[in-house]
Amino acid sequence: MRQQIYTLAGGIAAIALFTGILYAGAGAIRDRESAAAPELVLETPDMSDLEPPPDQAEEDNDVPLDLGSSGGGVGGGAPASDPNGNSTTETSALAVEPQQFGGSGAVTSAPLERIEPQTPSSKQDPKQAKAGPTVLYRPVAIAAGVIQFDKLTVQIDGIEPEQADRTCESAGKSWPCGAVARTAFRNFLRARALSCDLPEGNAGPSATASCTLGGQDLATWLVENGWAMPLAGSSLEKHADAARKAKLGFYGDDPRDLNHTPMTFDDPTVGTGMDALQPDL
Prior knowledge:
Elements: H1 2-36, H2 55-58, E1 77-81, E2 87-91, E3 134-136, E4 140-143, E5 146-149, E6 152-156, E7 168-170, E8 173-175, H3 177-189, E9 194-197, E10 206-213, E11 216-217, H4 218-224, H5 237-245
Parallel strand pairs: 6-10
Antiparallel strand pairs: 1-2, 3-9, 4-5, 5-6, 7-8, 9-10, 10-11
């Protein structure tokens, strides 16, 4: 019986000891956490302790501009001290300099000069407008040096007008040199577009103009091949003399006569695979 009491008392003592150890350990852990992370306490300032704003800040619009101030900057200020010894900022006046805005600063008092408005290009005089070359399509030669485009007939400038019914004499025979010249001219044109310098403001059914085909002047081509007579004093007279010496065109024999050398044409399409046009004779 006594032994059982000792055993029970020893168990109770052991439990009490174990419980004391647990409480002691928990207390040590709480003390360590409190030391590592101290509790932060937020303090709310008392609004009565704040100094009221200065009266000058409420009356900024009443501050005059001091153009002679050496502070000279926008929003610049010079440090100063109040009677209590605290450092404050004194607002400086804005200095306005003409050079800061890109102006020369020199102002002229001369009166403004009124300039007349310019006339729009669409309302300019057509006679004063410089017309460029006019491209004319599908020309039809009605004579050597005379071309027709739809309702417009153009006489090539620099040569005398030629008639298609002109006849020439050669070796005692008469032949239609005007018709042959027209055929040669048609074969050269081949209905290709021409660039002509038409007179400005021309609206009539006929005109006299210089024309080119692929950079070749038509008047020069006609005179060089003997199919046109140049105007007196023209620079084309030297080409007419060369054609006369070579017996070309009007200065030669009937090219249709097989007893003579066949007529040749200065055809720029030779070698391009295009079929030659047949004469209309």
